[in-house]
Write a sequence for this structure.
């Protein structure tokens, strides 16, 4: 038997492993007819384990493009991503394609989400602020679907990523606060698993150390408003409330600012100062006037579009990553 035949995986193999009929496998991948959710999951798991790709979805078999570009987000409650989705939707439309948006609040579901997205025969996938597991990296290499990791620094010659230079941004915030005369500092992080927050903290802490400030109050949030308020109160209860706090995003800064004002009776910026990240529209509101780091979203989208257009044109395009400079938008919170 030839090596080609030996390694060929068919729907019969998937049906056998999943314990269902071949017709059921066909219905799952064609999305024609009703199949119970539990059965769908068994079929998809069997297909993933075997490395099966349905012929209709196979890039190698030269199927027609669907003109769909999928955008996958794990944190859509953050207004930054809502704004970003509008920009990406405009980009997709300008390319003559349609956007398929998929969202999940659970980071551990990313592999399953991406696997299901590929069943739609999408022309490309854009993942927001999340890295790729080795298993899904192998999967994308096999199906040859262009992939962009947006707002994530991912070094691969096969996939493209575009991101703000978060280390440099953290360093910029540290220099700014020291220049303003502050002498004690804190950082409210996002989820420890998120690369962006880790890099912002690194740039902030390393630069403060160069200025002679080795101790930084630290508390973790999850990028939400409530977690910012809780982090601020945690610093207060531990007796570590600093004079200036850098928050890994604006939403946590809003929560921390409100906790400082309404729970502790502190004045901003006279008693305590805040710097956020993303420069959301709400940062301009009179109730916040939050000094914040703005990401170069338009430039990030332009790099994404350029990469995808070259891939769609069949040009030899390597992956790698692009890091872009941020800028400080100064308001009255610091």
């Amino acid at each position: 038997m030839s090596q080609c035949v030996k390694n060929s995986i068919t729907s019969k193999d998937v049906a056998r492993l999943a314990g269902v009929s071949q017709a059921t496998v066909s219905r799952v991948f064609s999305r024609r007819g009703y199949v119970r959710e539990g059965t769908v999951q068994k079929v998809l798991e069997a297909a993933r384990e075997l490395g099966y790709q349905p012929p209709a979805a196979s890039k190698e078999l030269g199927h027609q493009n669907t003109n769909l570009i999928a955008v996958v987000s794990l944190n859509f409650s953050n207004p930054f991503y809502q704004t970003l989705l509008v920009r990406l939707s405009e980009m997709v439309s300008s390319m003559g394609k349609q956007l398929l948006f998929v969202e999940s609040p659970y980071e551990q579901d990313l592999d399953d989400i991406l696997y299901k997205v590929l069943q739609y025969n999408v022309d490309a996938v854009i993942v927001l602020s999340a890295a790729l597991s080795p298993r899904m990296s192998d999967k994308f290499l096999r199906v040859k679907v262009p992939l962009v990791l947006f707002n994530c620094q991912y070094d691969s010659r096969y996939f493209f990523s575009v991101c703000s230079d978060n280390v440099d941004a953290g360093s910029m915030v540290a220099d700014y606060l020291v220049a303003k005369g502050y002498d004690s500092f804190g950082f409210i992080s996002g989820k420890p698993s998120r690369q962006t927050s880790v890099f912002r903290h690194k740039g902030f802490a390393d630069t403060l150390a160069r200025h002679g400030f080795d101790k930084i109050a630290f508390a973790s949030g999850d990028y939400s408003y409530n977690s910012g308020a809780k982090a601020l109160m945690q610093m207060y209860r531990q007796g570590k409330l600093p004079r200036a706090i850098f928050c890994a995003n604006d939403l946590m800064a809003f929560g921390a600012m409100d906790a400082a004002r309404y729970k502790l009776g502190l004045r901003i910026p006279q008693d305590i100062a805040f710097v956020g990240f993303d420069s959301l529209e709400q940062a301009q509101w009179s109730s916040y006037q939050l000094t914040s780091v703005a990401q170069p979203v338009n430039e990030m989208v332009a790099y994404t579009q350029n990469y995808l257009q070259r891939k769609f044109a069949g040009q030899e395009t390597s992956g790698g990553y692009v890091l872009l400079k941020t800028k400080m938008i100064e308001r009255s919170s610091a």
About this structure: Residues 1-7, 56-63 have pLDDT under 50 and may be disordered. Residues 166-295 form a domain with the Rossmann fold fold (CATH 3.40.50.2300). The longest strand covers residues 68-73.
